[in-house]
Amino acid sequence: MTAYEECLEGLLKHLDSMLPVCRELGIYILIDLHTSPGGRNTDNEWNLFKEKRFQNTFISLWRKIAQRYRNESIVWGYDLVNEPVEGIVPEDLMDWRELAIATIQRIRTIDTEHAIIIEGEPWGGANALIDLEPVPFDKIIYSFHMYEPYTFTHQNIYNNISPITYPDMVDGKIWNINQIRLSMKRVLDWQRDYNVHIYVGEFSAIRWAPGNSTYAYMRDVIDVFEENDWDWAYHAFRKWSDWSVEHIGDKYNTQTAPVPTDRQILLMNWLKKNQH
Q1: 189: burial class by Cβ within 10 Å (0-12, 13-18, 19+)?
Q2: Could you state a single Gene Ontology molecular function term (predicted)?
Q3: Mean pLDDT of 51-60
Q4: DSSP H or E stretch at residue 141
Q5: 71 and 188 belong to one structural domain
Q6: What CATH number should be reported for the domain holding residue 256?
Q7: Which of these, 142, 139, 123, lies nearest to 82 by C-alpha position?
């Protein structure tokens, strides 16, 4: 067993320990392979699309995961890989769509019930999704991640720029709910063309955006998701404080807020509407 497989086994054992809690609380699980076998090379390229052995491992691991959870009703589905990036694929290797098809074929020999989620290449964004030709299987859900406009949602994570508000002019456009609606219309059109199910697997904005900007952005994108009847998940819960709705908007305050923030209240009010 490789170090990668040992790490994955440890994570799956932890997931197994949480299954009773999830059943009790009615929290459904989407298993996401967040890092692919092989990692990245020195050029920041995915080795999954550079070496055949990593593609074989990828398919084999999903067979094992499906075998492990095929009868688990609290598992909602399998997200094959997070934000795939194939780069230049050698002729003797599969590109992302081909690898997804081969993997789904293997999963379906074991598990015909769970949903399988596919993100577009590269990076799982809206444009990547609409460039993907749907795969010939049932119970497939197509996913994209919403961080547009990136200059606003990721401001001052990797650089130091003047604060950017929402709604406002960003990257030469007025970004408000109408622009958000327009930015996702291409996904809605693609969905209607192919009659498929859409799941927004991630969306967020950095908590220190000026004033009430992060709340306003979250409110508007959720409203558009709901208009389109899309499933969605917020990124992320207690993973990194800078995305957290449990922290105030001060970048340098890493303590959880003494009372729920407006962003937390917004999310909780929507999540209360879930029906099992």
Answers
A1: exposed
A2: beta-glucosidase activity
A3: 97
A4: strand 140-146
A5: no
A6: 3.20.20.80
A7: 123
Residue type, 120: G
Tokens of 97: 């769509």
Domain boundary among 142, 164, 196: 142
163 Cβ neighbours under 8 A, 6+ residues apart:
155, 156, 209, 210
Label residue 78 by pLDDT band (50, 70, 90).
very high
> What are the pLDDT digits (tens) for 141-196?
999 999 999 999 999 998 888 999 999 999 999 999 999 999 999 999 999 999 99
Mean per-residue pLDDT of the chain: 96
| Best CA proximity match to 137, nearest among 189, 97, 85 | 97
Neighbours of 120 (CB within 10 A): 24
Domain count, the chain: 2
Q: Which H or E run contains 9?
A: helix 3-25
Please give the residue range of the domain that contains residue 164.
147-276
pLDDT at residue 99 greater than cutoff 70: yes
Q: Could you tell me if 178 and 227 are in contact, meaning their C-beta atoms sit under 8 angstroms apart? A: no
The predicted pLDDT at position 100 comes to 99
